[in-house]
Amino acid sequence: MKSMKELGIDREELFITSKVWFTHLHPDMVEKSCRQSLKDLQLKYLDLLLVHWPVAFKPCDKGFRIQDSITKYTVDLIPLTDTWKAMEKLVDDGLVRSIGLSNFNKRQLDEILEHARIKPVNLQIEMHANFPNTKMAEYAQSKGLVVTAYSPLSSMAKFQEKGNALTESWVQRIAETHNKTPAQILLRYLVQRGDSPNAQIFDFNLTDDEMHTLNTSGTNERKFTLPGSECHPNYPFHDDY
């Protein structure tokens, strides 16, 4: 907030999102997590707060480190609807303006929609040319949710050797056709699907054939699988979508 004031930027000009981590999905912890985010960001409210994952683990003093093979974490069996009720209360209390989900599958989204008093406005899912995630994106959109793509370039340090769409020949070929970078092609691909706007990609259009290539030429492999949590009853990626 200090930097915003120094730059003369009003809070209302920004759309700020945070997430509730999966060690804070118990209803008693949701507000605590939100207030900590507000404190860290020096804000009075968030524009959007997401449930980061549908799987829940009990809090521990050491935090949660995905790469840590030594620290053990205890599964917490928390109904998704209980977490959502706590999210709704944050809207009632004026701490957040909108609430949404991340990494939920179709079945879990349906469960929330069936019981929600305040509907989720957004679903954030992994989506890129190497994992189009078309079924989940189209289903969420059919239910009125805005879909946000994370990892839109399918690029991450641990995955540089395999499945990096930025280096795929079919992406580079399309980029050369339009005199654009591979990153701009991958972002334009998502925009044309109606998923994720970004800058400097609105001065050209991909042809139907190019869209088909981007939809079908990739590995169709999910990169972010939350390893170690596959045994959790709410693990979202056993389902088709």
From TrEMBL:
It comes from the Eukaryota. One of its GO terms (molecular function) is oxidoreductase activity. PROSITE patterns: ALDOKETO_REDUCTASE_2. Pfam families: Aldo_ket_red. Residues 10-193 form the NADP-dependent oxidoreductase domain. The record marks 19 as: Lowers pKa of active site Tyr. Gene3D superfamilies: NADP-dependent oxidoreductase domain. Substrate binds at residue 52. This is NADP-dependent oxidoreductase domain-containing protein.
